[in-house]
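Run log, item B.
One chain of 337 residues. Sequence copied directly from the ordering sheet:
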Amino acid sequence: MASTLLFAEPTGVDRPSDASSLLYAEHEKLLVSRGIFEAGLMPAGAPLDPYAVKGASGGEGFGSKGKGGGGSKRALLKIQAKVIAKVLKERGIVRIDNVLNPSLADAIRREVYDLRKESEDAIAEGTLNPKSVFADVLLTHNRRDMTLPIGPPWTKEALSRILLESPVGLTIESLLGKKALLREWSCLMSDPQSQRQVVHPDTPWQPEPVLFTCFLALQDVTIDMGPTVWLPETHIQAAHAKFQDESGPKDRLLGSTSNVLGILPKGACAIFDSRLLHCGGSNLSEQSRALLYCSFQNPLVTNPGNPGSIRSDLIGKWTLQELSEDLKTFKPVSLTR
């Protein structure tokens, strides 16, 4: 996903010049060095714990119908969403488990990597412009931010589970309203040997929340896979002011602020405020790390300050309410092979 520190690599069929590529390569080396420095500066992180709403779990997980039928399930989700929204306002980050069941996460993971291969093959053949499929990402080496369609059964099944069968949709509605706009729909893939990013927000600080992003783990995210690092409570103006001051306050902020790690079980999600400081870690494992994600934009914010990772035909097309209503008509199909 794009960040406010993005220096986009010139990629694809319209690469402007070798000089531009060399300039980017040098810039990326500086970012890698800075990321390594920040890793040594920051305190050890603790795993991001799941947030449980006391007395409101129902004991059946978000994907089940519940003993009391659809009405009681939605009432339960509303209770959960209200509490989760409060945590997001205060900390800027929260984890919710069991948004996707493991078999669905596995099926979606296969689909996104198949789509990636098809897209990369077409790009190599010169029949596809990479910008129509791959978004800019901070530190491009061994990383792909692949924008996704809405229409194939697996994408609708994923969105249905996220927005209708878990507290995520109602949490976004509680924070941004029903007219919140789908800003991003993509999959971030960090392959083995991808480097640690520098700490960054996804959007500059604004008085109102800009975006809320939901990361879905399509496999268990272990410590050696370079989980996302978030700095809770840094979505506020005071933290951003220090972060922008390169004369010393920025490093003191990073060195003195606790952080949490996105060590997530398969199917879990992390929702975070786009103003929150965070970074992707270095993948030292032998497995690619895939995070399916969507983000919704505050309808009161006209300029988020950064481009979204979304296909051009989906820009401005779906509000949360419209997408949710459309998904209610979707009939799940078997995604197993």
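Observations after the first pass:
- The chain is about 35% helix and 15% strand.
- Residues 195 and 282 are 4 Å apart (CA to CA).
Flagged for discussion on Thursday.
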